UniProtKB/TrEMBL annotation:
CDD domains: TDH_SDR_e. This is L-threonine 3-dehydrogenase. GO terms for biological process: L-threonine catabolic process. Residues 5-235 form the NAD-dependent epimerase/dehydratase domain. GO terms for molecular function: L-threonine 3-dehydrogenase activity. Belongs to the NAD(P)-dependent epimerase/dehydratase family. Gene3D superfamilies: NAD(P)-binding Rossmann-like Domain.
Length: 315
C-alpha cells in the first residue's frame, strides 16, 4: 500500500478537479485535500480536508506526518494577472511554498512532488511559434519569473539532493466545474459562461491574440500520467512543455457561434494584453510525447461541445 497524497491548493481551478480524479484512482481516504480556507461545503465534505497555509512549513510538515503522506501536489499560487497587482506576495507565495515542499522531500519526509509550471516562463524574446523545450527564456511577468526560478530550483534539488520532482508547463486551462482565479487566459473560460448567460462577451484580449490552451480533462490526465511514469523516463526535471491546441478569441467565438448562432463578441483589451503578447502562441511538446507518452485528446471543437453541455446542465 502506497502512502497518501496531499494536494495543497485543492480548492482552486486545477486542484478541485485533480482532487476528484486522484480520489477516483487511489481511493477517497488516500487523498487529502488542503487549502488556505475551506471551499464549497460539498467539496470539503467529500473526503479528508485540512486548512493549510502553504507558507507555513510546520503546518505542512505536521499534516504530512498526521496523514502519512508520500506524494505532494503543490497547486497553491498567484496567477499572472493577480501577481502583477501584488508582486511581493506573489513571489513569496510562489517561491516559498515550493521551497517548503522541496525541503520536506530533501529531508526524506515525502517521496514525490508535482509542481506546476506555465507557458509564462517564456518571454518576449522567446520564439513564438512551436516554442521549443529549450530556448530563450526571459519572462517579463512576476508570475513568469517565479515559475522560471521555481523550475531552476526543481532541477537543482533533483540533481543535487535526488528529489523526485516532476513538472509541466501548463498552457491556459479551460474547465467548467471551477472558475480560474486571476490568469491572463481566463477569458477562454468566462466566454463560455457569458455565451450561455448573456449571449455576448467583452474580451479583455484583442481578437488576434493567439495563445496555447488545453481542456482540463487533458491537463488532469497529463498531471496524473507524469506522476505515474517510472522515474527514469522523466528526463527533464525543470518542467515539460505540454500542448493540445492554440486559438485566438476570434476563433473560440466562432466555435461557440456554431452551437449558439446569436452569440456576439467585442473587444476591450486591458493590462492583460501585454502579458499575453509576451507569451508563446504555440508549443512544441515532443519531449513529453516521447519521454512519458503524452497525447492530448480535446481540440477546440470537442472542448466547446463538452463545455457548453456541462455548463448548460449547471444553470
Ligand atoms: N493560465 C495562467 C495564467 O493566465 C498561465 O499559467 O496566468
Amino acid at each position: 500500500m502506497m502512502g497518501r497524497i496531499l494536494i495543497i491548493g485543492a480548492c482552486g481551478q486545477i486542484g478541485t478537479e485533480l482532487t476528484k480524479k486522484l480520489r477516483e484512482v487511489y481511493g477517497t481516504e488516500n487523498v487529502v485535500a488542503s487549502d488556505i480556507r475551506k471551499g464549497e461545503p460539498e467539496f470539503v465534505a467529500s473526503g479528508p480536508f485540512e486548512v493549510v497555509n502553504a507558507l507555513d512549513f510546520n503546518q505542512i510538515e505536521s499534516i504530512i506526518e498526521k496523514h502519512e503522506v508520500e506524494d505532494v501536489y503543490l497547486m497553491a499560487a498567484l496567477l499572472s494577472a493577480t501577481a502583477e497587482k501584488n508582486p511581493a506576495f506573489a513571489w513569496d507565495l510562489n517561491m516559498n511554498s515550493l521551497f517548503h515542499v522541496l525541503n520536506l522531500a530533501k529531508a526524506g519526509k515525502i517521496k514525490k512532488i508535482f509542481w506546476p509550471s506555465s507557458i509564462a516562463v517564456f518571454g518576449p524574446t522567446t520564439p513564438k511559434q512551436d516554442t521549443p523545450q529549450y530556448t530563450v527564456m526571459e519572462p517579463s511577468t512576476v508570475y513568469g519569473i517565479s515559475k522560471q526560478s521555481g523550475e531552476r530550483w526543481c532541477e537543482y534539488y533533483h540533481n543535487i539532493y535526488g528529489v523526485d520532482v516532476r513538472s509541466i508547463r501548463y498552457p491556459g486551462l479551460i474547465s467548467w466545474s471551477t472558475l480560474p482565479g486571476g490568469g491572463t487566459t481566463d477569458y477562454a473560460v468566462d466566454i463560455y459562461h457569458k455565451a450561455l448567460s448573456d449571449g455576448k462577451y467583452t474580451c479583455f484580449l484583442s481578437e488576434e491574440t493567439r495563445l496555447p490552451m488545453m481542456y482540463m480533462d487533458d491537463a488532469i490526465r497529463a498531471t496524473i500520467e507524469i506522476m505515474q511514469a517510472p522515474a527514469d523516463s522523466i528526463k527533464i526535471r525543470s518542467a515539460y512543455n505540454l500542448s493540445a491546441m492554440d486559438f485566438t478569441p476570434k476563433e473560440i467565438a466562432e466555435a461557440i457561434k456554431k452551437e449558439i448562432p446569436d452569440f456576439t463578441i467585442d473587444y476591450a483589451p486591458d493590462f492583460r494584453q501585454k502579458i499575453a503578447d509576451s507569451w508563446p502562441q504555440s508549443i512544441d511538446d515532443n519531449s513529453a510525447r516521447q519521454d512519458w507518452n503524452w497525447k492530448h485528446e480535446f481540440d477546440l471543437t470537442s472542448m466547446t461541445s463538452d463545455m457548453l453541455a456541462h455548463l448548460s446542465e449547471k444553470v
